[in-house]
């Protein structure tokens, strides 16, 4: 019986190199899910928003085009079935330092501005995500400004 239990545990226990690979995949999915959530936050997904998501993931993770498409498709399915954002943000909080978290917030702002407009839902969602990532308000505002300027969107006073 002990041998049988040991065999069972060995069968379900991850291999030694699996956690590192799994952590990378979890982080990639978490990042993609947040970007996709911003992309989906307003009705109608523009090609520019999708291109911004793909460009961010390509730069961040160095994935090939087919891997990017699969990751975004998985992120879309995952986000559709998620009840909150905490699982995604906690994976990022566990793995990334503040500089990296600010960079992903800026990337999310670039997705939001990619179509030339910023909707109320996008703005609220970005505020929630930045809060869950523990990004200081000043860094959040500067990330937004940099993304807005990069998109060429004129700020209304």
From TrEMBL:
It comes from the Bacteria. Residues 28-144 form the Co-chaperone DjlA N-terminal domain. InterPro entries: DjlA_N (IPR007791), TerB-like (IPR029024). This is TerB family tellurite resistance protein. The lineage of its organism: Bacteria, Pseudomonadati, Pseudomonadota, Betaproteobacteria, Burkholderiales.
